[in-house]
Design brief:
The protein is mostly helical. It contains six helices and five strands; from the N terminus they run H-H-H-E-E-E-H-H-E-E-H.
Length: 240
C-alpha cells in the first residue's frame, strides 16, 4: 500500500520542485562568503544559531526572486551590475561586523535593514536595465548579460518575450491551470491504482473464501458419507 501512495503523490511532487533562482545565488563562492560573514556576526551562544544563520542566508539570497515591476517579473541583468550588488552586500555585512551589537534582536534588525536596502537597490537596478534592454528601440547593451532564473549568460543584447517578463496574472493563471491539470491527473491515476488494489485484494479474499467453503463442504460431505455407511452397517447387523 505504501508503494501505491508513493505513485499517487509523485505527480504532486513535480509541482513542488518548480521554482527559480535569483541574481545573487548564481555564484557558489559568493554564497559561501555571505555564509562566513553572517556566521561571524552571530555569536556562538545564540540559541538556534544554525537555523538563524540558514534563514538569514536564504532570505538574503532569494530577494531577487520577489522583485517585480509593472506586473512583470524582472529576469535579466548585466553581469557588471550583479557583481556590484554582491560587492555592496559584502561591504554592508563587513560594516556590521565592525559594530558591537548588544542582543541578537538588535542584530536581526540591522540584518533586516540591510536586506531591505538590498531589495530596493536590486529592484531599481533590474528595473533600469529592463527598461533599456527591453525597450522598443532595442538599445544594444554592453558586456555579458545574466539570466537570473537559470544562471546562464545570454549572448543576445536585445530581449523580447519571456526575458522581459510578462503579465504576472496571466502567468499565475497558467500555473494554476497546470497545477489543476496535474492534480486531476494525480487523482485519476491514484483512483485507478486504488481501484486496482481493491479489485486484486477482493479477488484474493474471494478465492480464500471459496477455498475455505470448498474445504468445509468436502469435510461435511465426507462426514455424511461416513454416517451413511455406519447407519447401513448397523441396519445390516440388525437383520442378521
Amino acid at each position: 500500500m505504501g508503494d501505491l501512495w508513493l505513485l499517487f503523490l509523485l505527480p504532486l511532487s513535480l509541482v513542488a520542485f518548480h521554482g527559480v533562482k535569483g541574481c545573487l545565488d548564481c555564484d557558489p563562492k559568493f554564497i559561501e562568503d555571505i555564509k562566513i560573514l553572517i556566521e561571524k556576526l552571530i555569536p556562538p551562544e545564540v540559541p538556534g544559531r544554525n537555523y538563524l544563520i540558514q534563514r538569514q542566508i536564504k532570505e538574503t539570497i532569494h530577494i531577487s526572486t520577489k522583485v517585480s515591476y509593472r506586473d512583470k517579473m524582472l529576469r535579466v541583468l548585466d553581469v557588471q551590475n550583479v557583481v556590484s550588488l554582491r560587492s555592496w552586500l559584502k561591504q554592508e555585512y563587513e560594516k556590521l561586523g565592525d559594530g558591537k551589537w548588544k542582543g541578537v534582536f538588535i542584530l536581526q534588525g540591522k540584518l533586516l535593514e540591510v536586506r531591505q536596502n538590498l531589495e530596493s537597490k536590486l529592484k531599481e537596478t533590474l528595473k533600469t536595465f529592463s527598461e533599456v534592454a527591453c525597450s522598443e528601440d532595442c538599445i544594444v547593451t554592453e558586456g555579458p548579460v545574466l539570466d537570473c532564473w537559470t544562471c546562464l549568460r545570454i549572448t543576445t543584447h536585445c530581449f523580447r518575450g519571456e526575458y522581459c517578463g510578462e503579465d504576472s496574472k496571466k502567468a499565475e493563471s497558467r500555473e494554476i491551470a497546470l497545477f489543476l491539470i496535474l492534480l486531476a491527473e494525480a487523482v485519476v491515476f491514484g483512483s485507478t491504482l486504488l481501484l486496482f488494489h481493491f479489485c486484486v485484494s477482493h479477488r484474493r479474499k474471494m478465492k480464500a473464501i471459496r477455498r475455505l467453503l470448498k474445504n468445509y463442504l468436502e469435510k461435511k460431505l465426507e462426514e455424511l458419507i461416513r454416517m451413511a455407511e455406519e447407519k447401513k452397517k448397523k441396519e445390516s447387523g440388525t437383520r442378521r
